[in-house]
Amino acid sequence: MKPEILVLVPIYAPTLAALEREFSVHKLWTATEPDALVKQVAPRVRGVVTSGSSGIDKGLIEALPKLEIIGCFGTPRGTVDLALAKRRGVVVTNTPDSIVEDVADLAMGLIVALMRRIAEADHFVRAGKWEAGLLEPGTGLGGKSCGIVGLGAIGMRIARRAEAFGMSVRYQGPRRKREVAYPYVPDLESLARASDCLVVACPATPETRNLVNARILDALGPGGFLVNIARGSIVDEQALIAALRERRIAGAALDVFRDEPRVPAELMAMRNVVMTPHIGSTTREVREGRGRKLFANLRAHFAGEPVLTPLA
């Protein structure tokens, strides 16, 4: 008999199809009564598949008495109780990879789309408005200042791309990086005031929650743009909505939100906001690579062999 696995969230469709050929798959996100499905299949489920961002809660781990392996599509960052899994003898795997270049590509794309009003222009043409007049001009990137909040691996790649577009780069973070030539601004409010475009690329931590608040947005000013490709918790979403509504900043481009996949209706109604559904790492190359690793881990485990990329 095929091993039974419980898939908690939608994952890359070709990977899910491959899993369904090899295993008996139960899809939790499609169940009208998820708790009832868990209760029904719990005595037989030997594996769980989830995403790194969604993980699995403690209660579900404890509800699956035959659980042997948790396969993560991506890498969990605090979303899987590794200590509990270890006590239960449950193997946890991930799919290590680098999303640095892909996220930086998206960030630069959002900067261009926002400042040059590409999304607005697309809507303008599709709505048949061109014949009646011209779209208001966007903002050129050359000679403008790009402030980067968090100059880690992704922030550094964004900086290089921004430079290639003729922008000057400054950054803010917990400390100056001695090996970096870009000007360091220790105070975020000062960085925002000096930036035409402020890009959030720092990790989500208790210290960075609501880091970009009303005071920072006011410092960015009515000609400034905000781009967030990090995490929704870093930007005070209600303060951002108010700043956009009152035109205290020029616009925002967001790949992440506070309560994904739910997006505030106010943001969706605004023409000066570009939004993408958390697709920083969503490239075919990354998804296919993760799918191969996830599948290989599950196949190895159920064949009695060591998994390829264990976390615990």
Question: Mean pLDDT, nearest integer?
Answer: 96
Q: Radius of gyration, Cα only, in angstroms?
A: 22 Å
Q: Domains counted in the coordinates: how many?
A: 2
Low-confidence stretches: none
Strand order of the largest sheet: 7-6-8-9-10-11
Q: Can you tell me the CATH superfamily of the largest domain? A: NAD(P)-binding Rossmann-like Domain
Main pleated sheet: 6 strands, parallel
Query: Can you tell me the overall shape?
Result: elongated
Name its key features.
single chain; 312 residues; alpha/beta; Rossmann fold; 2 domains; 6-stranded parallel β-sheet; 5-stranded parallel β-sheet; 12 helices; 11 strands; elongated
What does this structure look like?
By secondary structure, this protein is α/β, with parallel strands linked by helices. The chain has 2 domains: 4-96 and 284-302, 3-Layer(aba) Sandwich (Rossmann fold), CATH 3.40.50.720; 100-275, NAD(P)-binding Rossmann-like Domain (Rossmann fold), CATH 3.40.50.720. The chain has 12 helices and 11 strands. The strands form 2 sheets. The chain has a 6-stranded parallel beta sheet. A 5-stranded parallel beta sheet has the order 2-1-3-4-5, with helices on both faces. Helix 5 crosses helix 7. It is elongated, with a radius of gyration of 22 Å. The model has no long low-confidence stretch (mean pLDDT 96).
